[in-house]
Amino acid sequence: MQRTTMDLWVGVFVITGIIALMILSLKVGNLNVYNPAQSYVITGNFENIGGLKIRAPVKSAGVVVGRVTNIQFSTETYDAVVTMSMDGQFEFPKDTFASILTSGLLGEQYIGLAAGGDEVKLKEGDKIMKTNSAMVLEELIGRFLFNKAAEDDSF
Amino acid sequence: MASETLIEVNDLNFSYPTRAILNGINMSMRRGQVIAVMGGSGSGKTTLLRLISGAIQPTSGYVKFAGEVVHELDRDALFKLRRKMGMLFQFGALFTDLSVFDNVAFQMREHTNLPESMIRDLVLMKLHAVGLRGGHQLMPNELSGGMARRVALARSIALDPMLIMYDEPFTGLDPISLSVIGNLIRRLTDSLGMTSIVVTHDVHESLKIVDYVYFIADGVIAAEGTPQEVRESIAPFVHQFIHGEEDGPVPFHYPAQAYRKDLNLEDIVA
Amino acid sequence: MLKQIISGIQNIGHRAIESVWRLGVASRFFILVLLKSGTSLRRFNLVIRELYFTGVLSLIIIVVSGLFVGMVLGLQGYETLQKYGSESAVGTLVALSLVRELGPVVAALLFASRAGSAITAEIGLMKATEQLAAMGMMAVDPIARVVAPRFWAGVISMPFLAAMFSVMGVFGGYLVTVLFIGVDEGSYWSQMQSAVDFRFDILNGFIKSCFFGVAVTAIAVFEGYDAPPTAEGVSGATTRTVVTSSLVILGLDFILTAFMFRGVS
Asked: N- or C-end of chain B: fewer Cβ atoms within 10 A?
């Protein structure tokens, strides 16, 4: 049985496969950014989430600090409950302001966090109290027309 | 040769849904015998071997091997029984991805926990018995037809079975290989004390080595006897078979309608 | 004329029943292979041997094809994206197409024609030359000894091959866009990394390739085992392996994609 050479090649094959998987995870993907072991989960209620999707980034000052992990509709408050998984190394004050923003004119939507001044930090399971909904185009246009009409009336 | 009966075939029937193959076969084979089963092509000889090995189930009747009814065994018991059987397929059926050595060692490695050094000795002994000890490193595609069959023979005696079945062992061999295989069958049967069933239509080679002959035709045993009896038989079928006559009880023509009618000659004449 | 139509319809019906029948036999065979896999796990050497034939010998075709597919993706992606001034997103395009779809799917298609057909031909020839019957006569179950190791080797090697295909593709895209065309290297990688998610893209691609591995090898071993023991029988079975696997891969890909990426961008 000339097993040795064949075993060697199979070994090489398996190692190459594992290396390929690791390259995919670390170099191509963003496994290093999204580390569930050191993350904490917070929620926020939004009146309107617009086109926000699960897995959308949570950014603060343009830096990705977490990701949206779940979006649900609450029948108690009749608004959207967005669950975010935050990177453990970034802590935010309790009165942080969360708003749904759009990157670019037609880009994907993300949650922007603006830190407040509270001494107490947000921790696992906390809820962001101050939120700002997504801007919906129809509402924007509606508000614009309404204002315009009001202006016209005043003349 | 009055030793115990190894195989008893009792009123064995086998049929496919559309066609009956065997109709009431009775046989009895004793230990140490070489038995030939002869018959024309498609007469059900190979089916008989498959029934003895339990590969297919009889429609009725039974085969008893070493006291056990083959078709009543469950899978595990059948596999246990098959370790006592060997089978030589028509063209050897060597495992083409294994060397000659590994082919012969196959069963030992599968069924025993013998150390590799002992397997080596055993394999070389088996190969020596068929005269191919020197070729143990060859691959099956480097062997001639006769050599492949000798290796297959060595492989089938690897675990010293009680019975070896040979499915057309003489097909497509040159005269020298033919008598080598024939003599090996006889010699191994005698020295290992096993029973051999040779399914063949090679009359002359087999009559030289066997103890008893069964003729199968149309699913029944048409004739049986020792080679001496068979040679002297005046039964028309046996006579035709042994002397290779073209026409006789086994007709030359496949059943057909009248020749003239097939050629549309009838109208012309009429 | 009417007779021909009727016999045509009969023919279609007959074929439909026949395929359902075969599907049933195939499923039963698949279960049987799973049940008899104990030997392969106990004697892993058998699987390693087959890993060499299915995995190692497929390496070349996978690596080379992956490289070229990645290069073409890079080139085409660049051509299209530069019209919108977003050629820096070419890394994202290459990586996402490869990791989500092309890696698992094309690797599986190549695997079906390279390794799947070989498995079918080998098992079919073993059957035609009575090697399987001989094995059965030696009280060794051919499904446990011949079929199961090949099945598991295929299942194991498929995800690895798909991953290698994707990596080579990303590298090929890098070669073309960064080295030849001159897209910024930093944006190639960083845009890729921010867009490709481990759980949603890479893990799902991995799961896909596992499914494909099971499907292709299951089809290959079944067609081989079920092949009529003649030369035409084996060649027909080999062709069927490639055709059936390709169709199953694409169909399965649609179903899996619908499950995995529904509701997420």
From this structure: C
In this prediction the pTM is 0.77
Same domain, residue pair A43 and A20: no
> pLDDT for C19-62, tens place per residue?
898 889 999 999 999 998 888 888 888 888 899 989 999 999 99
Confirm whether C173 is domain-assigned: yes
Task: Return the HEC string of chain A.
Answer: CCHHHHHHHHHHHHHHHHHHHHHHHHHHCCCCCCCHHHEEEEEEEECCCCCCCCCCEEEECCEEEEEEEEEEEECCCCEEEEEEEEECCCCCECCCEEEEEECCCCCCEEEEEECCCCCCECCCCCEECEEECCCCHHHHHHHHHHHHHHHHHHC
Q: Which residues of chain B have pLDDT under 70?
A: 1-3, 249-251, 266-270
Quick check: is C24 in a domain? no
CB atoms within 10 A of CB C60: 10
- What is the number of domains present in chain B? 1
**pLDDT band for position A37 (50/70/90)?**
low
The residues that bridge with A147 in the sheet, in sequence order, are none
The domain in which residue B46 lies consists of 5-233
Q: Which residues pair with A42 in a beta bridge?
A: A84
Alpha carbon of A102: minimum distance to chain C alpha carbons (Å): 15
pLDDT per residue over B179-209, tens digit each?
A: 888 888 888 888 888 888 888 877 878 888 8
Q: Quick check: is B253 in a domain?
A: no
Asked if residue A45 and residue A27 are part of one domain, the reply reads no
Residues of C in contact with B94 (CB under 8 A): 131
Please check whether residues A28 and A68 belong to one and the same domain.
no
- Stretch (H or E) spanning B209: helix B203-209
Task: Tally the domains of chain C.
Answer: 1
Contact (CB<8Å) A28/C206: no
Q: Is A153 a domain residue? A: no
Q: Judge: A30–C263 Cβ closer than 8 Å, yes or no.
A: no
